Amino acid sequence: MENCIFCSILAHDIPSHKVYEDDKVYAFLDITQVTPGHTLVIPKKHVSDIFEYDETLAADVFSRIPKIARALEASFPEMEGLNIINNNKEIAYQSVFHSHIHLIPRYGKEDDFAIHFGNHMENYRAEDLATLAAKIKAQVKSE
């Protein structure tokens, strides 16, 4: 893909610090290193985001995540946890439009990384949730 930094990394036009590679995926250190070991996992096939995955590509990419996560855990015994993040589209903070999954090791509450989930339970009655679920369920069946 023209002007895609991750495609340029795959083509070895831009250097990276590879941690894993096979015929379907490439994993390398994120240059920002939110925390030590922050790794990106990308499909070798250029797709912009999760909405372009088919079942085969999803299986290829996501089946590699546990192996790489275990490698991070073994490499950093002081790691207390791991965030797996996949941002899709600009509104969801995607900044590189070649699909990628962040594996972010967590070393404690003070490691300069946070996610906030607002609690809006009081805004949704059981009937509202049932309506939302039915809407989504109808679309899942239609694919």
Automatic annotation (TrEMBL):
A motif (Histidine triad motif) lies at residues 98-102. It is an enzyme of class 2 (transferase). One of its GO terms (molecular function) is methyltransferase activity. GO terms for biological process: methylation. Its EC number is 2.1.1.-. Transmembrane segments: none annotated. Gene3D superfamilies: HIT-like. The keyword Methyltransferase applies. InterPro entries: HINT (IPR039384), Histidine_triad_CS (IPR019808), Histidine_triad_HIT (IPR001310), HIT-like (IPR011146), HIT-like_sf (IPR036265). Keywords: Methyltransferase, Transferase. Coiled coil: none annotated. Residues 5-115 form the HIT domain. This is HIT family protein.
